[in-house]
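Work Package 3 (structural annotation) set out to generate three-dimensional models for the target panel prioritized at the project kickoff. During this period the team completed the workflow that converts sequence records into discrete structure tokens, so that structures can be stored uniformly alongside our sequence database. As a representative example, we reproduce one entry of 187 residues exactly as it appears in the project archive.
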Amino acid sequence: MKPFFLILISLVTLQACGDENSLQEANVYEVKNIGELATTEYTIGKIIKLEDQSEEWYKYGERRILISCKAKVKAGIDLNQIEEGDIMVVGQKITIKLPPVKIISFHIDPNQVITEMEEINGFRDDFTQKEKSIFLKQGELAIREELPETGIIEDANKSADIFLIEFYQKMGFEKVTVIHSTKFYED
């Protein structure tokens, strides 16, 4: 009975060592091959309002316009930015330090750009398409400036956590710790 028990303990010990060795040999930087990981998508609406009163005496009247638009914004983590030393392995535990959340795509659908109201009075000309494009660009800049306040950064980080914890648990790690950057950047 004793020899059987010793063989069983030896096999369990070898198996445990084999698992730990396979974790040490696992390519933990393989996650970089994923590249840009879009983890969150928001649709954000914006109303752009302009009241244009001419200061020139020969252009009597006012112009007003109200344009609504919607932008689809995808945020996530560029896993290519992970550098040597950002991943630490200690036994069955792994800690990964992520680069900052970034905007992966930003798209305003032209079909979602609607002139809600346009009012011209006096001797003023209608708004040109060029002027409307300039207003729309201002709306895009306003959306981009307000992105950090929408919660998209926090949601992108939470979704990245879920993905990375599952990714490394499938590699055999028991404890996965993800550390996030407090920065935010756009390309």
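Confidence is low (pLDDT under 50) at residues 1-25.
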